[in-house]
Design goal:
The protein is an alpha+beta fold. Helices cover 41% and strands 37% of the residues.
């Protein structure tokens, strides 16, 4: 799935928001982690709970990390590999965000299941991604406004 959206925030601020969110998640699973360790190739493990209560150990790997430009990661489980990508284009006071996600199932049954289920949830997933991006935009905009008031 691909979502392209222009946000009314500076590219460096949105990129920093992505990094801060990522570091916050990593610290949850690895309390000794510091931001200095964040680079392409870094990976960490976490347990996820599926929709029907199944627990699955996953490995999250930072695939690409280019300042103010690209963030890509993969989440590998026993079912397959889920990849997400944020590509950012600096437009001055705006940022064009290209969000993409994909899944490659381990085995044809997992892949077929994903294709069938994703078609049902495509519209809902797209709306959720847009809402999350707009939420980040609103958060960063209000943060900037509060900075101006100080």
């Amino acid at each position: 799935m691909l979502v392209e959206l222009t946000l009314s925030v500076k590219c460096k601020d949105f990129y920093q928001f992505l990094l801060d969110s990522l570091v916050s998640e990593i610290v949850t699973y690895n309390p000794s982690f510091t931001k200095d360790n964040l680079c392409a190739g870094f990976s960490y493990s976490k347990n996820l709970k599926g929709k029907i209560g199944q627990k699955s150990e996953t490995v999250v790997k930072i695939e690409r990390l280019i300042a103010n430009s690209v963030y890509e990661s993969s989440v590998t489980s026993d079912k397959g590999v889920f990849k997400i990508s944020y590509k950012l284009e600096d437009k001055g006071d705006e940022t064009n965000v290209i969000y993409e996600e994909s899944y490659k199932g381990n085995g044809s049954l997992n892949q077929l299941n994903y294709k069938l289920v994703s078609n049902f949830y495509k519209k809902k997933s797209r709306k959720k991604i847009i809402a999350n991006l707009r939420g980040a935009e609103n958060y960063l905009s209000s943060k900037e406004e509060n900075k101006c008031l100080d």
